[in-house]
Amino acid sequence: MASGRSGYSLFVGNLPYQTTEDELGNFFSRAGNVVNIRIVSDRDTGRPKGFAFCEFDDEQGAQRAIDTLDGTEFNGRSIRVNWANSR
């Protein structure tokens, strides 16, 4: 999905390398309506770098994700969740 700054983007760090976009989207959907997930991969190797961006359609869902999911366990790792851009 090409984003035109219509959503609210979060940085998600400390992800297990085998994480899929579907898994992450399902996990974050408990906080609100997820419109896009992008797992960042190394340009040269194609391997995931262990972080992603999760975009919500409203600020309330994004803030709820930060409040409820930051520091929680996801597939054996304690993830970091915060705003992707400065607010």
TrEMBL record:
Pfam families (UniProt xref): RRM_1
Transmembrane segments: none
SUPFAM superfamilies assigned: RNA-binding domain, RBD (SSF54928)
A GO term for molecular function: RNA binding
Keyword terms: RNA-binding
RRM domain segment(s): 8-86
InterPro entries, per the entry: Nucleotide-bd_a/b_plait_sf, RBD_domain_sf, RRM_dom, SLIRP/GR-RBP-like
Domain of life of the native organism: Eukaryota
PANTHER family the record matches: HETEROGENEOUS NUCLEAR RIBONUCLEOPROTEIN 87F-RELATED
Protein name, as recorded: RRM domain-containing protein
Organism name: Plectus sambesii
